[in-house]
Specification:
The protein is α+β, with helices and mostly antiparallel strands. The chain is built from two helices and three strands. The mean pLDDT is 96.
């Protein structure tokens, strides 16, 4: 089973990298861009074939290592 995990900072958490991207875009002439938030995407493949069990494993991975649940939110997309 393939999965994509998207991790972003929670609302209210300062995102200095997002602000730097926003400033760089403005400097390149892209006007009207605001509230830029950056994150990360992790794609992986599990040998698990049961979707329910696989999703539980992915949740555990996120909670224990991939995301900081205090500061970050994550979403899991199972792709097959």
């Amino acid at each position: 089973m393939k999965a994509k995990i998207t991790i972003t900072l929670k609302n209210g958490v300062l995102d200095p990298q997002g602000k730097a991207i926003e400033g760089a875009l403005a400097g390149l002439g892209f006007d009207g861009v605001s509230e830029v938030r950056q994150g990360k995407v992790i794609e992986l493949e599990l040998s698990e074939t049961n979707q329910t069990v696989g999703r539980a494993i992915l949740e555990e991975m996120c909670e224990k290592l991939l995301a900081n649940p205090v500061m970050e939110s994550y979403s899991i997309e199972v792709m097959g």
